[in-house]
């Protein structure tokens, strides 16, 4: 059996008066791997994820398992792809576990599951993200970081074939950032999921990505293993900063910013 993968060829998409991505193609993404999208503000990272999720009109090919996702009906696409947005909804009168159960229940293939099975799965995901203690807390009483963790739980509980996460760690403290990235990595491997994550924290990208894609102005400026995509030269070009990528005393690569470049 051939390994499942996602391949993007000639993707063009954007907004009525602003074409953001033009004929974009990405290296093939293998199941079980984590691809981290980085790049300056407004580079097109969210636009790319939203196009793959069918939330924006797009032309080209997003091939998965022999099918072009762009041509699928919304319900079929929703069974394969889950997108966690950057901005999280507020004002929803549910507890944390109810929110996760609701996310699972809308998955087309899970509607017939027993209440006990769905509850157990939702509880397991909350525990995995170390927020089991928040199960009965209303969403409106959560902090920003806690809400981000619940939103991630809603995305991963569905165990989609393709998981798209838009800045899932932006509101989290360092410990929870590690919780999230390690959970995402484990789930990708366990379920053979294709995971694409947008991050601004380049040290997280260096630590957790199998592949890094650097997007600048709607185009790929670098793509490959983290140590090849994140270098002094690529950071200077993309972000106009002076930075070094060096190994710390424990051998891990880290970015050190020295200032703005001229
Ligand atoms: N709804 C919209 N209508 C029109 N233009 C939009 C809309 N949403 C985003 N854009 C524009 O599309 C471009 C890409 O935006 P996008 O949100 O994809 O960038 P990003 O790389 O995710 O940025 P950030 O790191 O700031 O979140 C930007 O120029 C932005 O102004």
Automatic annotation (TrEMBL):
PROSITE patterns: ABC_TRANSPORTER_1, ABC_TRANSPORTER_2. Keywords: ATP-binding, Cell membrane, Ion transport, Iron, Iron transport, Membrane, Nucleotide-binding, Transport. Belongs to the ABC transporter superfamily. The keyword Cytoplasm does not apply. One of its GO terms (molecular function) is ATP binding. The keyword Ion transport applies. This is ABC transporter ATP-binding protein. Residues 6-242 form the ABC transporter domain. It is found in: Cell membrane. One of its GO terms (biological process) is iron ion transport. PANTHER family: ABC-TYPE COBALAMIN_FE3+-SIDEROPHORES TRANSPORT SYSTEM, ATPASE COMPONENT (PTHR42771:SF7), IRON(3+)-HYDROXAMATE IMPORT ATP-BINDING PROTEIN FHUC (PTHR42771). GO terms for cellular component: plasma membrane. Coiled coil: none annotated. It is a peripheral membrane protein. InterPro entries: AAA+_ATPase, ABC_transporter-like_ATP-bd, ABC_transporter-like_CS, P-loop_NTPase, Siderophore_ABC-ATPase. It comes from the Bacteria. Its main location: membrane.
